[in-house]
Amino acid sequence: MKKACVLGAGAWGSAIAMVLSDTGHQVGLWDRDASIVDQINSTHAAPKLQGINLPETIVATTDYVQALEGAQVVVSAIASTGIREVSRAVAAIVPEDSILVSATKGLDPQTLQRPLEVWAEESPALTDRLVAMSGPNFAIEIAHKLPAATVVAAVTLDARDKAQSAFMTSYLRVYTNWDVIGVELGGSFKNIIAIACGIIEGMGLGNNAQAAIISRGIAEITRLGVALGAEPLTFAGLSGLGDLVLTATGHLSRNRQAGIAVGKGESIDSFVSRTGYTVEGFTTVKSAVRLAEANGIEMPITNVVYKILYEGLPVRHGVSEIMLREKRAEYR
Prior knowledge:
Elements: E1 2-7, H1 11-22, E2 25-30, H2 34-43, E3 58-61, H3 64-68, E4 73-76, H4 83-90, E5 99-102, H5 115-122, E6 130-134, H6 139-143, E7 148-153, H7 157-167, E8 172-177, H8 180-203, H9 207-227, H10 238-249, H11 254-263, H12 268-275, H13 280-295, H14 300-310, H15 315-323
Parallel strand pairs: 1-2, 1-4, 2-3, 4-5, 5-6, 7-8
Antiparallel strand pairs: 6-7
């Protein structure tokens, strides 16, 4: 049987492990939390996916050496804040013939690097085997085997083909792309716009406003992405507009839920404490603001979300700031 390793037993990591199991892999599922590992191995229940049982071909462990042994596919499904620590421990011992797939949607908050840049920095030997995976994919729907599509991007054709084959199932259609930068940035920045849409929903400002935020949000994401080396067309695809629409409108979206809470007057810190959710956009918005300033890119929605979350800007003032900006042409 083929072997795979998934780093991170959260909702997304567990769902990816199920996909790999369905494509014929024995999966080592690593997590640092021993209680999660014990629960998976004793009950086969996925702690972060309510009502889902994992197949016996998935074995959890706190030992990443054990999880990596013989793996032909290694998936990093950890939060952006943990990329550096995990990659530093793991990168050098990734099996030589394997691909490493990053399913993280965020940036390293310290260096502003994309996840695959971090992995390559920790082990340059991985460079040609690195793959970015992103798309409009709620973990629980993937776990229930509902139809979905995603994209895998790599600089080499071999890595793209291996990743496509590893994840393609009857319920998950996998497309390939060469634009690693665009795929990673689209999956990261859309969380900021999803928070903005949630704020609009929480304030009760209607569907027109949310549609406007999505449309203008993808425009500013594209501006910054192109400045950072991405292909503009990527942001019209699965990892750009596709993922943005899902995350900005789907009720399962944690970033949207966080925005709704903020729009109703709750602080983001209170929301995170109350729910225990990882809200990637909360961290990513700081990185996006810094990158936009460094590259001279206008990102009005992102800037307002940042001010609301970190500078105490009242949400209604934030809406006014966006609506009363200087008039301009749409494509500029």
